[in-house]
Automatic annotation (TrEMBL):
PANTHER family: A-KINASE ANCHOR PROTEIN 7 ISOFORM GAMMA, RNA 2',3'-CYCLIC PHOSPHODIESTERASE. Residues 28-50 are annotated as: Disordered. Residues 54-250 form the A-kinase anchor protein 7-like phosphoesterase domain. InterPro entries: AKAP7-like_phosphoesterase (IPR019510), AKAP7_isoform_gamma (IPR052641), Cyclic_Pdiesterase (IPR009097). This is A-kinase anchoring protein 7 isoform X6. Residues 30-40 have a biased composition (Basic and acidic residues).
Amino acid sequence: MPFATVDIQDDCGSYLFPLVTDVRQANSKRSKENEGIKNEHIKKRKKPSKDYQPNYFLSVPIINKKITAGIKVLQNTILQQDKRLAKAMVGDGSFHITLLVMQLLNEDEVNTGTDALLELKPFIEEILQGRHLTLPFQGIDTFRSQVGFVKLADGDHVNTLTEIAETAQRIFQEKGILVGESRSFKPHLTFMKLSKAPVLRKQGVKKIEPELYEQFIDHRFGEEILYRVDLCSMLKKKQSNGYYHCEASIVVGKKPVGIQDLINEALQRERMELKSKVKQIKELLLKPETQAMIRKELFEGRVLNDGNHTSDADSSMTLL
C-alpha cells in the first residue's frame, strides 16, 4: 500500500540592561540548542527503522451503497473466472481510502495519535472552507499486478485530498509519531490483494490478470462524500460490520451526519480529557514529594489517633 506523501521586555533601570541582555542572549542560545535537540529527536523518531511495521492508519470509510454494491459485482465477476481468488478479496465493510499509515506501539502512543487526529479536524475544515468534498470513483487498476483497486477519478478533489493527507502527515510527525516513508500519495480503493492469501502463489497465481476485470476498466462506481476520518488498527479484531477497529473519529464537511456520529465524537473528546487527567494524577502521585506528604499525613494521623485513644483510656480510669 503506498504511503501518503510524506511532515518581555522587563521595565528595569538602564544599569540593568547589559545584564538583562546577556541573560536573554544566553537563554536564547540555550533555547535554540534545546530546540535543535528536540528537532533532532523528532527527526530520528520520524525516520522509519529497518524493522518499522505500520500498525495503524487514517481511514476515509467508503459507505455509499452504490459504490460498495458495484465492488461486490466486480468481485463476484472475478470469482466466477477464478474461485481461488476468494481469499484475496477485501471483505464487506472494509472499503476505505488510506490517508496515512503509522506505527503506534502502546496505549500512550495511541492516545497521542488520537490527539493528533482531533487536532487535524480544524485544518481539514479550513481546507474545505465550508464545502463538501466529493470523491468520484471510476475504473480499475493495480499496483504491480498484486493489489487491485478502484481508481479515484481525476479532478481538483484529488489535490484537496492530497493536501489533507499532507497536513495529516505534518501534524502526526510534529507529535513525534512514526509515519510511513514519503512516497507520492495515490488515493485508491482496494478491493483485492494477493498478499491476503500467500497460498495462491503455491497454486500458480502470481498476479492479477487484466482479463479478470477488463469489463470494469472504465466503470463508474459512484461518488463518496468525505464526512469522517478514522484512526484504525490494522491488527486488532474488526468490528461486527467488517470495518476496522476504530480508536477515534472526527466528523468533517457539510454532509449531514447521524446523531450517533456526533455522540461518538463527543464521547471520544470526553474520554481523551479523562485519560489526560488520570495521567496527570498518576504522575503527581509518583513524585517523591507527593509520596512524602502522603506518608507524613498517614503517620501523623496514626500518632494522633493513638494519642486520643490513650487520653480516652486515662480519662476512663480516672472516672473509675
